[in-house]
Write a structure and sequence with these properties.
- Two copies of one chain form a homodimer.
- Chain A contains 13 helices and 14 strands.
- Chain A has 356 residues and is of the alpha/beta class.
- A ten-stranded mixed β-sheet of chain A has the order 2-1-3-12-11-4-5-10-8-9, sandwiched between helices.
- The first copy, chain A, starts with a strand and ends with a helix.
- At the A-B interface, strand 6, strand 7, helix 8, helix 9 and helix 10 of A face strand 6, strand 7, helix 8, helix 9 and helix 10 of B.
- Bound molecules: 3-isopropylmalic acid (IPM) (2 copies).
- Chains A, B: It is an enzyme of class 1 (oxidoreductase).
Chain lengths: 356, 356
């Protein structure tokens, strides 16, 4: 028996609309093939939201988000604001606010490796092979949400890096539960030799660890983790970390998967799940049919598995991507410069191939 | 005519004493060969300081530091404190305090690539080749030194990420001056799309940039920078960044040089310069004659060049290291697992080879 779900698509900025088009198309196809009824709505966020309503997260978008069963998001950000440090309203505020409003405190970023793409990475294939990491990045706390201040003379600026026990506990539990059914190893990353917030983080993780004696726990400083991730990515299974450190490490780790264009993430917590590529809005290639739609399609696979419990459907998608890559199709970002055996496709053609 | 300088050696913890022994030996040899008079003193810091006096930065050490012409430092940290998040006194406090007390606001970390070590990196040789980066990490501000708080019930902890205009200005000027005589490109790394401190950082760098129209300025978000550094390290020349981001990026970048065991750093500012390897105390191999002394020896080369203006002497050292590597000698950390053409040496033998 098929299920019935309502999905909100938020294309966002830059290449967002192009890639979510293909995520949505794949979802529709899965619905047809497996007899599920997926209904869709669309809403604005980020620069697109600001242009239309002056608000990076329009009220209507938030209302629709709360009413949906899952959200497929594209990308956010615009160069215009990046180079204007004094802008009051910014696209990113929309993303931060929706994370907070929906209680999306856990951001899961699996680093999967498609064998076909081993050569697209800047790391040596023998270093990469066998890498399989699941990041748990805390998403609604840290210096992202702590109080921001600017002195009256504008010469001093600050952000508060802050964590409370319950925030660390709830994501640590999620990460340990995942580690238990994966490789049974968890690495918690902090900077406890310098930061008080990290010392609390480590204390809490040490406590939760006691409830999971079957999982091997390691604590690592962020500087060392950033290094080890390049040196020997295979050594990681589940990585648990704070918002800022997670932001940095997961982008770095994207090189393991050959390109950011291949990585999806799931943000979950109290209510509706939120699924998005980890790549940004990439304005330099927006509207040129060059973007890699695979991360958006993989976001859909995560949605099916995590929010709807549809494992076979999710597998069908990753298999289709696998086959497309095996057949030699690549978007520009994942094409290995040294080989001419691959066929370079644009966004549309790549999306079509996966659909087929 | 030779010069006369007084150098304070602070061996610190873990492998610190082993590696500074060789840094000092090389300095003595350079003194003899070039007719300079180097005098030495020694002092405690970190865990070693705590053991002897209860203080990670004993008053005597600070007094000696201020009275010296340059400081050669080893490493800091002890596993005992790392896993005890509630420890009040920690080795790292000694390092942070001496940085602050001596006004060492600019930490220079050159990423040099010895051709012989191209294969020791996890990155592909063609990605690495030609990489030459000079990091300017701000060292006396940021979340490292902002107010730390723990709530009375101990359930909430915070650190203040804070910057003032003058702190950004003075290091930005140093970085631009260096860029001007290097590749004329400067990349400033921040997270201005989220953090107020980063927005101030970007504002100030944009202003200083105007005084250096001959240098091409780029602003990059830290997550993107962590990714680009692995993807295409060659694209960077001078990288300017805050304390925390610099800590993370430079450790990550150490993989470019094959190993952290190959990287030295210079901390400069208002007074006496401070020279140290970027590697840590590595307690797991301490006292086993396994540590790589090259970073400490390279620290000495930086000291000669930056604090004493002795370029030829510095070059003599890097040439000696180059030759030692060309002759096939390696410590364990930089030996390429796939080749059996190299000879693995311990700390002492490696130090001897370079001296010869
Ligand atoms: C756009 C930005 C606010 C965001 C973040 O830093 O969280 C992005 O980099 C991400 O990782 O989702
Ligand atoms: C030991 C620690 C406090 C220090 C830092 O984070 O600054 C170290 O990692 C470094 O990079 O010099």
């Amino acid at each position: 028996m098929g299920i019935k779900k309502h999905i909100l698509v938020i294309p966002g900025d830059g290449i967002g609309p192009e890639v979510t088009t293909w995520g949505k198309a794949v979802l529709e196809k899965i619905g047809q093939d497996f007899g599920h009824e997926f209904t869709f709505d669309e809403a604005l966020m980020g620069h697109a939201g600001i242009e239309a309503t002056g608000n990076p997260l329009p009220d209507e978008t938030l209302a629709k988000a709360k009413a949906s069963d899952a959200i497929l998001f594209g990308a956010i950000g615009h160069i215009k604001y990046d180079n204007d440090p004094s802008a009051k309203v910014r696209p990113e505020q929309g993303l931060l606010k929706i994370r907070k409003e929906l209680g999306l405190y856990a951001n899961l970023r699996p680093i999967m490796l498609f064998d076909e793409l081993l050569d697209a990475s800047s790391l040596k294939p023998e270093i990469l092979k066998g890498t399989d990491i699941l990041f748990f990045r805390e998403l609604t706390g840290d210096v992202y949400f702590g109080e921001k201040k600017r002195s009256e003379d504008r010469n001093t600026a600050s952000d508060l890096m802050i964590y409370s026990r319950y925030e660390v506990e709830r994501i640590a539990i999620k990460a340990y539960e995942a580690a238990r059914v994966r490789g049974k190893r968890l690495c918690s990353v902090d900077k406890a030799n310098v930061l008080e917030a990290s010392r609390l983080w480590r204390e809490v993780v040490q406590e939760i660890a006691k409830q999971y004696p079957d999982v091997e726990t390691e604590h690592m400083f962020i500087d060392n983790a950033a290094m080890q991730l390049v040196k020997n990515p295979k050594k990681f299974d589940v990585v648990l970390t704070a918002n800022l450190f997670g932001d940095i490490l997961t982008d770095e780790a994207s090189q393991i998967a050959g390109s950011m264009g291949m990585l999806a993430s799931a943000s979950v917590g109290d209510g509706t799940g939120f699924f998005e590529p980890i790549h940004g809005s990439a304005h330099d290639i927006a509207g040129q049919d060059k973007a890699n739609p695979l991360a958006s399609i993989l976001s859909v696979a995560l949605m099916l598995e995590i929010s709807f419990g549809l494992k076979d459907e999710a597998k069908k998608i990753t298999d289709a991507i696998d086959k497309t890559l095996k057949d030699g199709y690549r978007t520009g970002d994942i094409a290995d410069a040294n080989t001419d055996k691959v066929k370079i496709l644009g966004t549309t053609a790549m999306g079509q191939k996966v659909l087929e």
